[in-house]
Amino acid sequence: MASAAEQLASQISFSNLAKATELKKRIWFTLGALIIYRLGTWIPLPGIDPAILEDIFRQQAGGILGMFDMFAGGAFGRMTIFALNIMPYISAAIIMQLLQAIHPHFEALKKEGEVGRKKLNQYTRYGTVALAALQAYGIAVGLEGTTGQQGSAVIDPGMFFRATTVITLVGGTIFLMWLGEQITARGVGNGISLIIFAGIVANLPAALAGTLELGRTGALSGLVILFLLLLALAVVTFIVFVERAQRRVVVQYPKRQQGNRMFGGESSHIPLKVNTAGVIPPIFASSLLLLPITVASFSANSGPEWLGAVTAYLGRGQAGYLFIYGALISFFAFFYTSVVFNPTETADNLRKYGGFIPGIRPGRNTAEYLDHVLTRLTVVGATYLTAISILPEILISQYAVPFYFGGTSLLIVVTVTIDTVAQVQSHLIAHQYEGLVRKSRLRGRRR
């Protein structure tokens, strides 16, 4: 027999959205914030010649710069105030989570509840500013050394240009960090993920048009285009299937007597997703891998020979890039899963409330069992994430198809869509419950 929550959820449709005033406000706020973000991706940096920069970027768009531009929503190719996007914030968040796992001070802050969480968030913001400043300075120096057929991309190189570039790019990153936090708190969905999602989706039509143009000019055959579109559809279907897959661990609660009545004796389950880490590992891996390689790409022409060789070896579709990218995805899949789900804490909570897994002794044995199940699931999840991210990369590097049809971009779009729709449905369920509570109160007053 279905629970009351499941019955209520099955009756909910988006036609009820018109009655959910709070949810409508959240959706409009999210859309407005994303529109502001998209407008900012068209405001150029001062001191840049757009025509020369466009020519330079067109020559290197098939490499690592094109991948970074995909995450930046086109802002990097146009070298706008949001060129760094939200990547420095993600890198700072990675560092803070690593510190929580290895440093006693940060581990203690994690256990202090809301106060500790605020301090950790503050440290993350400080780290974002520091990383954004370093990366912005590297990009400014790289731009000064970048020349095209028409000359240098920087109109007036020097310290003034570097200072204005650093200030502008750091300010853009800080604004996006604040905007993402506002979307999470006052909108619908995870703000950071939605900002990346909006950048990818905004360029999908142009990417599709560019692919069809390659077919029209004969650069790609019609069969190859059809195969790539069918592959993208198959990848989306596979992502949806795996993201909704879960292993349900049965939990039994014993019966207990209070007075003349018996309570408990019910069974429940702990849902363990196959991909517990979600879309975080590819985003984390990309943020750590893309920016250093991007700065190296800018400096390769004016730097030492070994830098050019390293940049070529770590180019898009090369063995070095694919190996490091896959290794980082696998690492963050296990790392983030351990952050999200703690088997020992879960086992302690089950014992506290009298629950147990049939055939497994409470306490340490339960924690070991949950850890064993979660590890096997994470192996499958990490393999799935790596395959989804790596296999299309190989095809893209072979056929020069836009990155927006790659596995990472499709994974982000599909996963963020699923999570956002789930949050909308949860708001609708809460609205339905509120309506039922009001009706019951009115009936009680009439009686």
Question: Please, could you describe this protein's structure?
Answer:
- This protein is mainly alpha-helical.
- It is about 70% helix and about 5% strand.
- It is built from 17 helices and six strands.
- It has a two-stranded antiparallel ribbon. The chain has a two-stranded antiparallel sheet with strand order 3-6.
- Strand 4 (about 255-260) and strand 5 form a beta hairpin.
- Helix 14 (about 320-340) runs antiparallel to helix 16 (about 365-400) and helix 16 (about 365-400) crosses helix 17.
- The longest helix has about 40 residues, at about 405-445.
- Residues about 1-10 have low confidence and may be disordered.
Task: Name a few traits of the molecule.
72% helix; 447 residues
Task: Outline the fold blueprint.
Blueprint: H1 4-11, H2 21-40, H3 50-60, H4 64-71, H5 75-78, H6 87-102, H7 104-110, H8 114-144, E1 147-148, E2 151-152, H9 159-186, H10 191-217, H11 222-244, E3 246-252, E4 255-258, E5 261-264, E6 267-273, H12 280-299, H13 305-313, H14 319-340, H15 343-352, H16 364-399, H17 407-446
Antiparallel strand pairs: 1-2, 3-6, 4-5
Helix pairs in contact: 2-9, 2-10, 4-12, 6-7, 6-8, 6-12, 7-8, 8-9, 8-12, 9-10, 10-17, 11-16, 11-17, 12-13, 12-14, 14-16, 15-16, 16-17
Distance between the termini: 31 Å
Largest sheet: 2 strands, antiparallel
The run of helices and strands is: HHHHHHHHEEHHHEEEEHHHHHH
Task: Tell me, rounded to a whole number, the average pLDDT.
Answer: 79
Shape: globular
Count the DSSP helices. 17
Query: How are the strands of the biggest sheet laid out side by side?
Result: 1-2
Low-confidence parts, pLDDT < 50 over ≥5 residues? 1-12
| C-alpha-based Rg, rounded | 25 Å
User: Strand portion, in percent?
Assistant: 5-15%
Helix content: over 70%
The class by helix and strand makeup works out as mainly alpha
Total E-strand runs = 6
